[in-house]
What we know:
Layout: H1 2-23, H2 28-46, H3 52-63, H4 65-76, H5 81-107, H6 113-138, H7 150-165, H8 171-199
Helix pairs in contact: 1-4, 2-3, 2-4, 2-5, 3-7, 5-6, 6-8, 7-8
Amino acid sequence: MLNLRVRPALAHVVDPVAAALLKAGVHPDAVTVAGTLGVVVGSLALFPRGQFFAGTAVVFFSVLTDLLDGAMARRLGTTSRFGAWLDSTCDRVADAAIFSGVALWYLGDGGSTTLGAVALFCLVAGSIVSYSKARAEGLGLRCDVGLAERAERLIIILLGTVLLGLGVESALPVALWLLAVATAITVVQRLVEVRRQDALPAP
């Protein structure tokens, strides 16, 4: 999973920034909310207007706060259930904004009802992927399997939007169709995994 590889690789960049923000008196939860607001603004204000390069830049730097707030909380030693809940909830809001912005573009000036529907499918399927993991963990099971977790989904959709912003017209449609298939497969993978674990004899 990309989460396990990307976070350690960026730690040497993120940690000094986290330390500086804490020194300035910034709370990790404030960073979480600010990053989410940045994603919402970049996605819903710029994507529907066809400003994909600028929108992707805003979203990308806002998404990086997902690494920053966790590093700040760990340095403070104050990781909490509320902080974890806030982070997960804001992730869902950010994902909804990104795919809604893409859908609004295609349902408007982008001129493709089909691709607008695919973007909405990616949004719904991605939410099911996240919910299936949360619900499984609530039942005492693990559900970490899957072809397209959140990190993979973000990389694919933002690669599509930035390339479209650079003039590669086919990039975003390809990204959306790829995500639709990969996310649907992930839903099935998680269903099978949870069913497998539930069938195991109780310890």
